[in-house]
Every structure is written in structure tokens, then in C-alpha cells.
């Protein structure tokens, strides 16, 4: 009888006008409001009539223009007030009606705010609705106190993505042991928390598939557990050695992707226990050649391996039938690369020098990227070695040169009968840096003797690159070839092969709209 009575009451409520039903939704918690959509077609129609919002203040150009303008100290209060008015004005509808929020994203400095409690209000307004993605990062100036994350953050059961940065996460954090059963991605960046807070969060978010702990402070013994669905894990240790983890324990039997960035110390957990691992990235760890060889052999499903700034590595020597992508980046060059990986499709190598011994058995390689940062004298033999190295690839997608060398020579007579045909396997050559003292003429001659790329591009960020760009414009755009320039030589210079050239300029911006980080690039399209 009680159930029948409740049903009759609900039927009567459903007959009320839509505006009144919307008003009722406003006073319900977000979870209960969402559940009304299954009660009847009337409630479903009301739910579907809710406005759909996306609040992305990181892309709000008026905000960034306001904050990036240099102001006198006396005008700072006006700037802060204007900042608050822009955000408050955008959120005004949330104060009077329920809404579905696809995304709420805000990055800001605490110094922008006169009263930091407004952050609590903004998060409360967002989480009081059916919100899918919440992304809030605050940045403290040196010496500023930590700002504690409001407890209402973990009350939005509709959350699918939660990214937080710059907060202090006090324990206990989760209100009434609430569970965020829909949460799939959780990211904590530059936060201060304790070990028990991480355990509390893991327990409250059992469905998380992607967990990112970036430079978390306050944790000494890291334990990640109670996440049976976790398939992707990212751990970056804080830069300060004082925040280095003493121990790391990861209980994740279904883990498929792991990115770990340490502090130049020994690896503190056994990666080979994750037998389903397909992607592995390790940075700044003192792992040895033998450790890498064991990793590849003990992880039968490993398809992608990245090794960044692992300074103890001397050789890469292993065999794998599953590996499809291999990346090595370091300021320290390898001595030897001997790899048997028949299914490898992408290879990237970045270091100061080429390895002395290079052998790669692969029949599927499709993409190859080579970044060199030479600092020694660039001689004719250096270009010969580079050409011999490049000839081992069927195709090299990109050759990047960041040249710290201050002297260079390229003398054709020293080639000793080396074949004159430049390689066409290199598709693109990019020069990020050249030194002013280099001889641009011999650098260009050596480079275009080595390969005939489809494009030659130069970044203008380095102060002396502009001189090199101007030199290239003059030399490459000259269409006349002196008929006697190479008549006495069996080896012809690049001028005899270049048929057509086009020049394009472009500018790319990095970071948020307020950032002044822009990279200008000049690209020479070459037809041979």
C-alpha cells in the first residue's frame, strides 16, 4: 500500500507544469536530480530540457588579456575585481537553475584573488549540478600558504574526469564515505597530501582507469590499491630530493600503461609484475642495460618502450617480437644498439652522438626520428658517418639537429671516392639551433651532400638562427649555377640537383592563451 501511495503521489507531481518541475530539480542533490529522468517520460523530458554548459576559463580570451596586461600596483585591486566579475557572470545561471555541465576548467594564481574563498563557491556551484569533467588548478607563489581543497569536490557522483592541481588535500577528504562510481580519470598535480589520503581516494573511486600523480608532496611510502580497473598509471616524483618516495607499492593486476619519472635513483618497484603491460615510459632512473633487457623479456605484451635520460644505459640490446615503438632520449649517447624487433614500426633516437655500433633487425619500420645535438667539431668524416647511419633506414621521417658545435668543415676531396648520390630516404630536416661561429656555407654543403630532404625548416627561437635563415634564403633562392662549380669533380654539389624551392613561414603558440611562448619557423620546400 505504501508503494502504491508513493506512486500515486509521484504521478500527481508529474502532472505539474514543467517550470515547477524544473524548480523542484533545483533543490535536489545532483544525484537525485539525475535519477528523476527514469521515473517517467515527463521527468525525462524535463531532464533533457536542462541547459548544457561548458565553462573553460583557460580559453577565455578576455580573462587572459586582462591578467596579462601590465598594471600599476594601485590598479591590481581593479584587475582582481574584474577577474571575479567575469567568472561570476559566467556562472550566474547556476545560482537559479540546475544544469548539465560537460566541463568546468579553471587555471589561476592565488595572487589573482582578493578572497580565495570564492574558489569554494565556484566548485560548489559546479558540483551541485550534473557535472562530467572538473579541472581546477591553482598556482601558489613562493612562500604562499597551501589552499585546502573544499570537501564538496568529491560529492559530485556524476563526475567522469577529475583533475586537481595546487591544493592541499586534508584527511579525511571524502564526505560521508561517498563513492564516485562513475569516475574514470583522476589526476593530482602539485598537491600536498598524506599516504592515508591517497588510500581514501582510491577506495572512494573504484572505477578509475587512468590515475596520474604528478609531483605530489607529503608522501613518503606510496601505496596504490583498491583500483581493480586501473589500466593507466602515471607517477612523476617531485623534483626536490626531500620529497622522494622511500617505497612504492602498486597493486594493479590489469595495468596496461605505466609512465614513471623518478629523481635519479634506483627503481623502487618491480615493473615485471605487470604481465599485461603494453606501454612503459621511464625517465631519470638509474637503470642498467641488464634491467632493460630483462624488462623486455619479462613483459610478453610490451608494445611501446620509452627511455628518457636514463644515464647509466650504455647499450640497448634485446629481442622482442611484440615491440612496435621504441624511444631513447638522453643527453648521454649510447655506445651500442643491437635490436631484433621484426614488428617495430616506430623508432626515435635523441642524443649528442650516434652510437658506435648500430644493428636493427626489423622488417616493418615505418616511422623513424633522429635528433642529434653535436658539440664536437663537425668535419667531413662526421657527415660521412651520418650518411652511413642514415643509409641503414628505408625511410627517415625526421632528422632534427640542435648544433652546439662552434666549428665545422666539409672538404669534398676528403670523401675519398664516396658515392656522390645524396640520400632521399630523409623526408624532413629540422634545425633547432646553430652557432654564430659556424661556417654556414660548408654546413649547408655537408648537409645537402648527406641527404636530399623534402623540407628544410629552421626554428627562429635561437638568437643566431635568424642569420642562418637569411643565408639560406640567399643561397637556396639563387637559381643560377656556375657551370664550372663542379666540372673538375666527379662528385657534384647539391646545386646540380635542386630543381625548385618554395618558402613558407609559420608561428606556433605553446601553453595557454596568456603565454607569450611562440615558435616561428621558416620552411624551405625542396624539389629534387
Can you characterise this structure?
The chain is of the alpha/beta class. It has twelve helices and 26 strands. It has helices spanning 2-14, 18-26, 30-35, 41-48, 61-68, 76-90, 118-127, 195-204, 289-298, 380-390, 440-450, 465-477, and strands at 52-56, 100-109, 130-131, 133-139, 147-148, 161-165, 167-168, 185-189, 210-214, 221-224, 232-236, 247-250, 257-265, 279-285, 304-308, 315-319, 325-329, 336-340, 346-351, 357-361, 367-372, 396-402, 426-433, 455-459, 500-509, 518-527. The model has no long low-confidence stretch (mean pLDDT 83). This is F-box domain-containing protein. Residues 10-67 form the F-box domain.
Largest sheet composition: 19 strands, mixed
User: How would the global form be characterised?
Assistant: globular
Q: How many beta strands in the DSSP annotation?
A: 26
Strand portion, in percent?
Answer: 25-35%
Amino acid at each position: 500500500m505504501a508503494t502504491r501511495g508513493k506512486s500515486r503521489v509521484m504521478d500527481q507531481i508529474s502532472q505539474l507544469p514543467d517550470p515547477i518541475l524544473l524548480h523542484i530539480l533545483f533543490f535536489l542533490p545532483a544525484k537525485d536530480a539525475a535519477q528523476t529522468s527514469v521515473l517517467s517520460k515527463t521527468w525525462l523530458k524535463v531532464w533533457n530540457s536542462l541547459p548544457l554548459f561548458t565553462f573553460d576559463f583557460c580559453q577565455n580570451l578576455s580573462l587572459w588579456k586582462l591578467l596579462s596586461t601590465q598594471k600599476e600596483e594601485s590598479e591590481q585591486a581593479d584587475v582582481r575585481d574584474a577577474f571575479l566579475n567575469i567568472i561570476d557572470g559566467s556562472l550566474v545561471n547556476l545560482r537559479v537553475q540546475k544544469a548539465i555541465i560537460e566541463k568546468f576548467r579553471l587555471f589561476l594564481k592565488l595572487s589573482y584573488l582578493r578572497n580565495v574563498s570564492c574558489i569554494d563557491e565556484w566548485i560548489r556551484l559546479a558540483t551541485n549540478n550534473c557535472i562530467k569533467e572538473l579541472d581546477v588548478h591553482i598556482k601558489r607563489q613562493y612562500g604562499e600558504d597551501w589552499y585546502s581543497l573544499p570537501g564538496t569536490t568529491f560529492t559530485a557522483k556524476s563526475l567522469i574526469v577529475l583533475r586537481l592541481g595546487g591544493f592541499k588535500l586534508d584527511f579525511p577528504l571524502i564526505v560521508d564515505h561517498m563513492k564516485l562510481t562513475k569516475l574514470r580519470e583522476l589526476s593530482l598535480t602539485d598537491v600536498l597530501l598524506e599516504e592515508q589520503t591517497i588510500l581514501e581516494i582510491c577506495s572512494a573511486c573504484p572505477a578509475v582507469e587512468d590515475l596520474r600523480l604528478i609531483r605530489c608532496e607529503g608522501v613518503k611510502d606510496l601505496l596504490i590499491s583498491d583500483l581493480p580497473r586501473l589500466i593507466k598509471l602515471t607517477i612523476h616524483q617531485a623534483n626536490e630530493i626531500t620529497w622522494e618516495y622511500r617505497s612504492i607499492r602498486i597493486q594493479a593486476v590489469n595495468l596496461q600503461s605505466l609512465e614513471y619519472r623518478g629523481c635519479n635513483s634506483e627503481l623502487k618497484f618491480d615493473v615485471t609484475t605487470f604481465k599485461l603491460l603494453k606501454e612503459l615510459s621511464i625517465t631519470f632512473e638509474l637503470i642498467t642495460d641488464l634491467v632493460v633487457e630483462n624488462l623486455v623479456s619479462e613483459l610478453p605484451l610490451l608494445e611501446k618502450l620509452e627511455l628518457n635520460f636514463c644515464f647509466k644505459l650504455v647499450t640497448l640490446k634485446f629481442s622482442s617480437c611484440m615491440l612496435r615503438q621504441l624511444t631513447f632520449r638522453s643527453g648521454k649517447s649510447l655506445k651500442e644498439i643491437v635490436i631484433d624487433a621484426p614488428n617495430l614500426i616506430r623508432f626515435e633516437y635523441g642524443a649528442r652522438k650516434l652510437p658506435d655500433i648500430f644493428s636493427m633487425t626489423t622488417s616493418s619500420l615505418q616511422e623513424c626520428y633522429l635528433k642529434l645535438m653535436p658539440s664536437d667539431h663537425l668535419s667531413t668524416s662526421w657527415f660521412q658517418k651520418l650518411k652511413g647511419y642514415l643509409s641503414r633506414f628505408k625511410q627517415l621521417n625526421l632528422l632534427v639537429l640542435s648544433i652546439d658545435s662552434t666549428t665545422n668543415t666539409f672538404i669534398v676531396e676528403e670523401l675519398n671516392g664516396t658515392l656522390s648520390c645524396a640520400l632521399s630516404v630523409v623526408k624532413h630536416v629540422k634545425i633547432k639551433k646553430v652557432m654564430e661561429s659556424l661556417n654556414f656555407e660548408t654546413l649547408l654543403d655537408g648537409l645537402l651532400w648527406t641527404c636530399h630532404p623534402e623540407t628544410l625548416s629552421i626554428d627562429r627561437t635561437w638568437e643566431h638562427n635568424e642569420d642562418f635563415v637569411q643565408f639560406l634564403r640567399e643561397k637556396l633562392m639563387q637559381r643560377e649555377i656556375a657551370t664550372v662549380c663542379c666540372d673538375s669533380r666527379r662528385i657534384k654539389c647539391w646545386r646540380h640537383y635542386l630543381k625548385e624551392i618554395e618558402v613558407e613561414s609559420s608561428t606556433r603558440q605553446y601553453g595557454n592563451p596568456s603565454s607569450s611562448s611562440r615558435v616561428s619557423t621558416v620552411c624551405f620546400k625542396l624539389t629534387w
